[in-house]
Backbone:
């Protein structure tokens, strides 16, 4: 029996290029986060609007979350070491969960403030100026959020994707504020202001639960069924073409842009070690190509066809997803 480890070719973008793109995006996010905080707090102080306050509070949370995201991005890029042989990428899921928790706290505070203003009654002023400020900041957030998500997906950086979705949530919050406060400005129905704040708080809470759910799945290494199906199809094709006689003990895991695949390949008894190695390398290259934008490591365990396999499929990932193949 032979244990064979295969490492892939570099992804389309080098790690250095990915890192540079990620750092540029994070710097832009930090600068805009400070701008959002100052601008929205200014808009709240001159208007007294609870809806604008909810928007400002979301930006306060975003500034702290962005700082955490920047640290996580730096830490995740550190190479593996003795204490972390699989690297440091899982901190991205912690960052996503932390950001979700902070957003959740902001949502609770917004709901409390909205309910208080609805009972006591808001005192509003200079709504026109506040609306202009909110509209300008919302437009900036729209472009930033789309930019962060695009860079995050192209470089497989969950931290940036989560941060980008947070920025887009901030933009939708600003849009809701514009609509709500605009109606107050037009109709003079001041009770609409805290109602809008409450609705925005509920929307922010929904986003928070989404980020926390993503963090949980990543930390628990929940597999992507689509990726599993791709791996199974590739191995079944290799079996049909005769590269291997079969396979079992299949597992795979993903952390951001890194994918690990483990499998036992069953080979004909009469193969030489050199030929078995050649076939294993061929199959591993096929698996590698399935994730062309990722860093892939395939570990294969080679066994002769006559070897007893009492544990076949016992721990196989496919049992829990698609049944025995």
Residues:
């Amino acid at each position: 029996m032979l244990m064979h480890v295969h490492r892939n070719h570099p992804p389309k973008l080098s790690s250095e290029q990915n890192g540079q793109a990620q750092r540029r995006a994070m710097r832009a996010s930090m600068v805009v986060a400070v701008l959002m905080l100052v601008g929205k707090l200014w808009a709240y102080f001159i208007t007294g609007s609870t809806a604008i306050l909810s928007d400002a509070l979301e930006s306060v949370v975003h500034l702290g979350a962005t700082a955490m995201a920047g640290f996580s991005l730096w830490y995740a890029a550190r190479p593996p070491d003795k204490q972390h042989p699989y690297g440091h990428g899982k901190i991205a899921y912690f960052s996503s969960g932390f950001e979700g928790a902070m957003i959740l706290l902001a949502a609770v505070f917004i709901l409390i403030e909205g309910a208080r203003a609805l009972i006591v009654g808001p005192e509003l002023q200079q709504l026109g100026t506040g609306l202009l400020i909110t509209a300008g900041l919302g437009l900036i957030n729209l472009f930033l959020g789309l930019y962060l998500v695009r860079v995050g997906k192209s470089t497989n950086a969950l931290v940036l994707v989560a941060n980008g979705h947070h920025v887009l949530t901030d933009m939708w919050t600003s849009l809701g504020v514009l609509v709500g406060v605009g109606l107050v400005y037009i109709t003079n129905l001041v009770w609409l202001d805290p109602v809008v704040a409450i609705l925005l708080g509920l929307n922010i809470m929904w986003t928070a639960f989404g980020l926390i759910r993503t963090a949980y799945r990543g930390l628990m290494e929940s597999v992507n069924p689509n990726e599993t199906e791709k791996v199974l199809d590739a191995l079944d094709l290799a079996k049909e073409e005769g590269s291997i006689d079969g396979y079992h003990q299949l597992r795979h895991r993903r952390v951001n842009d890194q994918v690990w695949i483990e499998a036992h390949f069953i080979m004909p008894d009469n193969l030489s070690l050199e030929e078995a190695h050649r076939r294993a390398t061929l199959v591993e290259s096929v698996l590698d190509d399935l994730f062309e934008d990722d860093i892939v490591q395939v570990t294969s365990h080679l066994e002769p066809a006559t070897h007893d396999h009492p544990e076949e499929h016992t721990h196989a990932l496919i049992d829990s997803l698609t049944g025995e193949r």
User: Anything to note?
Assistant: The two ends are 23 Å apart (CA to CA).
